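Appendix B. Raw example, untouched.
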Amino acid sequence: MNLAEETEDLSMNNKINNYLVFGYCKVLLNSILVFVCLGLILNLFEEIEFFKNVNSEILLPIILTLSFIPNLIFINLMPFIIFLSAMWYFISIKNNSDLLTLKIFGYSNFKIISIISIVAFVWGVFILLIINPITSNMIKYYELTKSNYSKDTDHLVTINRNGVWIREFKDNDLVIINAKRLENNFLIGVSINIMSDKNLIKKRIEAAKANVNNNIWKLENSKVFNFQKNNNISIENKDLLEFNSFYNLAKLNSLYRNLDTISFVELITDYKKLVIRGYEKSTISERINSFFALPFFLILMVILAAIFTMNNRSSNNINYLLIAVLSCAIIYYMKDLSVALGKSDRLSPELSVWIPILIIGLINGIGLLQINEK
């Protein structure tokens, strides 16, 4: 083969590769738009129901829906969108004889699947580095805005670089609680300020730590400052002091487990800071591993879609639809079961993320050998 023929073959391969890449990207974009539309409609009804008895702006439910949906689509549902879009694409090139034409040009099933898999992998990396920081900020705005309209606005808690902040109302008094971090069952470095309805401080309690296992906190090595009307301050030292709060360990932990507001990049760069704030290492590790696994998970979903379509001689689209729905349901519950085992300490956080992917990978390995023989 001379140089001209090699150049012509290379040019033809580039054209075919571009055809496959852009063809699949078009299908993927259409699939994302369909899921976005469905998500907007369903979540909008939920937000309207939430705000129906609240005095708020008319556009607020729409704004909150637009803030919530990107994280749902690009982080939580993307593996299933990739799977469905890949099935759709493989069925289309199979039904319109493009698959046969590609094989005439020397493209095997394995090569076609490899090109689409690379697209899925690059898309996964793009989500982690570019889209996820945006969606995490949108979720942060969503939760902060919605909490301001919640029925429990008398009881608010937030976690930031300055530690844990809690606001409560008790007997017309405003209670503001600050702690450095949550460590096991204890809030460390606790400061409790109790203020009257006239914004005058009545009492301040400082404690080395507080056991928050239930709603009756046990404050250890505490000092109580009582502010009297004549501007005198009395100080009491208590080895053990009880304090009744709306929050307990379970409610605080639920906030620490919600890492949707923290992006993949922040989890990596601010790992030590997050641990100091009180986030459990196992929770952070699970989240980081789930992010690392996303691009590989997308590849496996493409391969699984190829196995179901290229291995199936049926031209009945209903059969493909049933296969897609059943597969998504099985994978979803398998992931959910694995995560539940991780949270119950029967599996390590890392294994709970990677076991479903390893199982799908083994299944794909067997199916891929059969496809490549055809």
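End of appendix B.
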